[in-house]
Write a structure and sequence with these properties.
The protein is α+β, with helices and mostly antiparallel strands. It folds into two domains: 101 residues, Immunoglobulin-like (Sandwich), CATH 2.60.40.680; 117 residues, Immunoglobulin-like (Sandwich), CATH 2.60.40. It has two helices and 18 strands. A hairpin with a 2-residue loop joins strand 16 and strand 17. The protein is globular and about 65 Å long.
């Protein structure tokens, strides 16, 4: 059973036809049928050309999580929109290949307002893990389609240190969330400036990040700083939060960059930026309590 908790943190008629009239009608129908046959042949030819031209636009790409925990299994997926052969993957060390490649295929054809579109995808999935920490890049893979070789993009993956098993911090966070009690170390936000000693009108980058070890369902209320004595420019392109993983004091956190701003101080002296306040909606699990009086004895 799921429930939700709030935590506030600062920081789209033909029978009458006779004789020649009947013959004329028959001739007209025959001529129309012949023209319709030519039309169908032409349509099929155009559809074939259209599908062929779409199939020539090959897209071959690789995708994987941008961050994983040390020793955690994850998927590296190569996808291409045409049937290929001779898939050649690079050396993936220090990642260990546990399984793969597993191949799957998906295909569909749509005709909308006379326009034909075909969508097909072939995927090759590998299951990997790494016992080493750090940031590593898996180079491009290659695949051959109709005698031509195509290259995928490379992927960069950050491997963060696993949690300390002796203290079981993740289990503690889960138990706290289940009881509805969320500590300050389970969920908090930070605002950081890239420099603190500047000249008047010199730009300063302010980055706001969210650190969480609980399941966030959304944000219900935000109170932004007023940025008095500053001119502020928002660098965030959309409302999506970019998440990654970090190990902080032996605990694994999901870290999201919530906002980035450039501010320009408009006067000299010691200036202060007020903290940001965010109210989060957190999912918590509540166990159903039994009303049976005998349960206490077992």
């Amino acid at each position: 059973m799921n429930s939700y908790s709030k935590k506030q943190i600062n920081g789209f008629d033909n029978s009458k036809l006779r004789g020649r009239a009947g013959l004329g009608l028959k001739s007209s129908i025959l001529h129309s049928t012949v023209r319709m046959g030519h039309f169908l042949l032409l349509f099929l030819a155009l559809m074939s050309i259209s599908l062929k031209s779409i199939a020539q636009d090959v897209e071959f790409k690789a995708s994987a999580p941008n961050a994983v925990v040390q020793g955690q299994k994850f998927q590296l997926v190569y996808s291409v929109n045409d049937e290929g052969q001779n898939l050649m993957v690079p050396d993936m060390s220090p990642f260990i290949i546990l399984m793969g490649p597993t191949m799957s295929q998906r295909s569909s054809v749509q005709i909308i307002n006379g326009k034909v579109s075909r969508d097909q995808e072939y995927t090759y999935t590998y299951v990997l893990k790494s016992e080493q920490t750090g940031t590593f890049t898996i180079p491009s893979a290659t695949i051959e389609i109709d005698g031509k070789q195509y290259k995928s993009n490379s992927v960069t993956i950050k491997v963060v240190e696993a949690e300390n098993e002796a203290t079981h911090p993740q289990q503690e966070a889960t138990n706290d969330a289940a009881s509805g009690a969320i500590s300050d170390s389970d969920l908090y936000i930070t605002m950081q400036a890239n420099r603190t000693n500047v000249y008047q009108s010199q730009p300063v980058l302010i980055t706001t990040k969210i650190y969480t070890r609980v399941n966030l369902e959304g944000i219900s209320d935000i109170q932004h700083p007023s940025f008095r004595s500053f001119i502020a420019e928002d660098l965030s392109q959309d409302e999506r939060i970019e998440w990654t993983l970090e190990n902080i004091n032996g605990k694994t956190y999901r870290v999201g960059t919530y906002n980035r701003k450039i501010v320009f101080p408009q006067r000299s002296g010691t200036l202060e930026i007020e903290p940001i306040s965010i109210e989060f909606l957190v999912r918590i699990r509540q166990s159903r309590q039994s009303t049976n009086i005998f349960d206490n004895f077992f």
